[in-house]
Amino acid sequence: MANKFTQRINRSFDSNIQLTDAYIDYGGNIGISGLIIRDHKGDTLFYSPRIYIDREGINRYFQGDFNFSSVDIESPILKIIHYENEKETNLSQLLKKISQPKENKLTKGSLSTFQLSKGELVYYNTEKDITSRFSDISLSLSDLFLIKVYLKPKLKILIFLLKHMKI
C-alpha cells in the first residue's frame, strides 16, 4: 500500500516523495512512517516521522476523490530554501508543480480536521546566508476546502516559538 500510494502521488505530481512504512493503527486510521519530500536539488523539503490519515479518505483517494476526514501530522520539519540564483524558493517551485498535475487533476477536495503538533519550519537563504527557525508549532484547522489551486482554511490555533539566527 505504501509503495502504491507514493508511486501514484509521484507520477501525478512529478514529485520526489518517499515513505518508510504504512500501517493501520488501532483506531482504524492509516499510519505513515518516515514521510520525506525532496526538492528539485534533492534536499529535504518536508519530513515527518508520523502521519495519520483516515482510512476512508485513503480509499476515496485511490478512486480519484480528494475528500478526507482527518489528517494528523506529528513532529514535521518544513525546510524552505531560497537557493542562490533562483527566483523562487524550493517550496514555491514544488507548489507550482503540484498545481499542474500530470494525471488525476486535483481541482477540488476537502479536509474536515487537520492537526499538526511539535512542528518546525526552517527558512534558509543561501545567497544572503540567513536562517530563520520557527519551532514547537502546533496547528489545528477545520473545514478546509481546495477549489482549483485556492485553499481556504479556518485557523483555530497557531502556536510557535521564533528563533532568528545568522550563521
What's the layout of helices and strands?
Elements: H1 2-13, E1 16-18, E2 21-24, E3 30-38, E4 44-53, H2 55-61, E5 67-74, E6 77-82, H3 90-98, E7 108-125, E8 130-147, E9 150-166
Parallel strand pairs: 5-7, 6-7
Antiparallel strand pairs: 1-3, 2-3, 3-4, 4-5, 4-6, 7-8, 8-9
Share of residues in strands = over 45%
- What order do the helices and strands follow? HEEEEHEEHEEE
Main pleated-sheet profile: 9 strands, mixed
- State the low-pLDDT regions, or none: none
Name its key features.
167 residues; alpha+beta; 9-stranded mixed beta sheet; 3 helices; globular
Write up what this structure looks like.
- The chain is of the alpha+beta class and 167 residues long.
- Helix content is 17%, strand content 56%.
- The chain has 3 helices and 9 strands, in the order αββββαββαβββ.
- Strands 1, 2, 3, 4, 5, 6, 7, 8 and 9 form a 9-stranded mixed beta sheet that branches.
- β6 (77-82), α3 (90-98) and β7 (108-125) form a beta-alpha-beta unit.
- The longest helix is centred in the first third of the chain and has 12 residues, at 2-13.
- It is globular.
- The relative contact order is 0.14.
- The model has no long low-confidence stretch (mean pLDDT 80).
